[in-house]
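note to self — DONT lose this again. spent like an hour looking for the file last time. sequence + predicted structure for the chain T wanted, 135 res
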Amino acid sequence: MNLFRDYTFERQPVLREGSVNGTCHLLALDRQRDTSDQDLLRQAIEFFHGLGTYTHLLEPRLLELFQTFVMAWASTSIASVGLSEYVNGCVALMAGENERAELLQLDASTRREIAALARQHLVDRQVEFLGEYED
């Protein structure tokens, strides 16, 4: 694995970026409830772990995509539902993310960052709007 990482994966940006983007695409499909490739997604994450590149290649991209996803979800939801629906939606969203993280065996650092990003975008950045609700 080290030889592959050092001489192929690290030196071939197209292969490296394609692997990261493909894994992120599978994760996006999983978030949309398309679980047909969940085993492939799990194997892709294991691949990055096996190469020792999860932390510096895959994790930052996963977190970037989660941030984009949760920001869009919060903006759409806060503008279209009542407070109780918004809170229930947040709880369901995070339950799904926690279940996904466990199933895919994401690192503890990834899970902590996902929780922090969720709090930031679902609660902290929505305080002004949440305070206006009269459910």
